Amino acid sequence: MTTLPKQENIPLERERKTVHKMILIYCEGMHHSPKGELCPDCQSLYDYASIRIDSCPFGWRKPTCVRCPVHCYKPDQREQIRKVMRYAGPRMLFRHPYLTFMHGINSLRRMN
C-alpha cells in the first residue's frame, strides 16, 4: 500500500525534481556526462541543493530562490547553481514544460 505525500510536501518535491533536471541538463551539456547521470561535481551540487531545500525555513511555502529574502547557499555553490540555471533554464521549457510552467507560477507567488 502506497501512502500519498502530504499536500505541503508536493511543492518541495517538485522543486527538488526541477533542480535535479536542471543540473542533469547542465551536466550533460557542459560535462558531457551520459544521459541521466551526474558527474561527481554535479552530484555534489545536487546533494547540497537538496539539503538546502529540506532545511528551508519557509517550508512548503518556499519561494523560488531568486525571490527569497534568505540566501542560504554558500557563495561558491550559489555561483555554481546560477551557472546551471543560466544554461539549463532556456532548455527546460522544451524538455520539461510542466516543471518550467510550475516554476514560473511559483516565482509569481508572493511571500506572506
What does this structure look like?
By secondary structure, the protein is mostly helical. The chain has one domain. Helices cover 62% and strands 0% of the residues. The protein has 4 helices and no strands. The longest helix is centred in the N-terminal third of the chain and has 22 residues. The protein is globular, with a radius of gyration of 14 Å. The model has no long low-confidence stretch (mean pLDDT 86).
Counted beta strands: 0
Mean pLDDT: 86
**Mind summarizing the main beta sheet?**
none
Element string (H = helix, E = strand): HHHH
Task: Please mark out the parts with pLDDT under 50 across 5 or more consecutive residues, or reply none.
Answer: none
Count of individual domains: 1
Distance between the amino and carboxyl termini: 36 Å
Using the CA coordinates, give the radius of gyration.
14 Å
Shape: globular
Fraction of residues in helices?
Answer: 55-70%
Roughly what fraction of the amino acids lie in strands? under 5%
Can you count the helices? 4
Which structural category do the helix and sheet elements fall into? mainly alpha
Essential attributes:
0% strand; 62% helix; single chain
